[in-house]
Amino acid sequence: MMYSEKVLDHFSNPRNVGEIEDADGVGEIGNAKCGDIMKMYLKIDNGIITDAKFKTFGCGAAVATSSMATELIKGKSIDDALKLTNDAVVEALDGLPAVKIHCSVLAEQAVRSALSDYYTRQGIDPLPIVGEIKEPEEH
Question: Which of 20, 63, 77, 93 is the most exposed place for a label (fewest CB within 10 A)?
Fold first, then answer.
């Protein structure tokens, strides 16, 4: 299986690992079939994601996609973060092997899950804004 330099770099030197103690939104998503679990922490100020951290238990691709996802949403508005697709994560990593595409879906869903939690904490129903959080299918 071939991984791009970017995937290897984000796996070897993942960005934004850890947790945010006083996070404004925390999301966790798992894939029972492959055993990957991603936990995403967001700090949000005036609709801007000022910080994003993650803890991922899983394969190298799962770590790399989590790392890239946090990089892509840091400093962005919630609206921009909601537009983050797994395809954008894959593209930013210069591609992923087909068998690992589900990891990028996991990263997208982890971001959505954390934003959903953020709205819930604000007393706002997240469903109309964030949509349904789905467990990614194994490909």
Answer: 77
| Beta carbons within 8 Å of 102's beta carbon, 6+ residues apart | 31, 34, 136, 137, 138, 139
* Three-state SS at 74: coil
- pTM here is 0.94
Q: The CATH number of the domain where 60 resides is what?
A: 3.90.1010.10
Confirm whether 138 is domain-assigned. no
Out of 23, 26, 29, 34, the active site residue is 34
Find the catalytic residue in 62, 68, 89, 103: 103
Per-residue pLDDT of the chain (139 residues; tens, 9 = 90+): 789 999 999 999 999 999 999 999 999 999 877 789 999 999 999 999 999 999 999 999 999 999 999 999 999 999 999 999 999 999 999 999 999 999 999 999 999 999 999 999 999 999 999 999 877 665 4
